[in-house]
Structures are given as C-alpha cells and as structure tokens.
Amino acid sequence: MPSVTAKLSEDGLVLNVLFAISSDLENKLREEGKPIPEPISVRALIDTGASGCVVKSEIAEKLGLTPIGVVQIKTPSSKSDKGDECYQYIMRMGMPE
C-alpha cells in the first residue's frame, strides 16, 4: 500500500492533490472524439478520520462533471443537526510525485 510522508502544518496535513474525471468517462470522451478535461491540482487538507472526500463545487464544474446523487454530510459548521446536502460525483484523486 502506498504511503505519504509530509510535514504537519498549522492547518494539519496539507498536500498537493490532483482531481480528474473517472477512467470510464475519459474512455467515453476519447471514443467520441471529445476533449478530455485536464486534471486540477489543488492544496488539500487530508483528514484521516473522514469517511469521504469533499471538494469545492468549482472542481467538479471545471471537470464538467454531473452529480450522480446527493448525500448528507455533517461537519462542525453544518447549519442543522441533519447536516448539509452535498452532490456526489465520480472522479479520480491522486497525489503527484
């Protein structure tokens, strides 16, 4: 299993991460002769206790993704006891070398 070694900052474990469309979508776009969106590089806070990955909506928009569903997430900043509704997307996440 891959591992990462990084320095802990004041904000926690923050790393460069790449987000890209799924392999299936990339293959479909390639077959249709359509352009493939470039991966997006961002600084990301790695939360080892999280049960999922949450990204800003701008990332999904820049990749041209369509939501596949909605999920409730609860964070310390949630406005209700039930949490907040967030769109779900299928995408790839990687850490550049």
Descriptive overview:
The protein is an alpha+beta fold. The model has no long low-confidence stretch (mean pLDDT 89). The chain has a three-stranded antiparallel sheet. It has a two-stranded antiparallel sheet with strand order 3-4. The chain contains two helices and five strands.
Q: Whole-number radius of gyration?
A: 15 Å
What fraction strand?
25-35%
> What's the story with the biggest beta sheet?
3 strands, antiparallel
Q: Which regions have little confidence, pLDDT < 50, spanning 5+ residues?
A: none
Mean pLDDT: 89
Helix content: 10-25%
Q: What class would the helix/strand composition place it in?
A: alpha+beta
Strand order of the largest sheet: 2-1-5
β-strand number: 5
Detail the topology: elements first, then pairings.
Layout: E1 13-21, H1 23-31, E2 40-46, H2 57-62, E3 69-73, E4 84-88, E5 91-94
Antiparallel strand pairs: 1-2, 1-5, 3-4
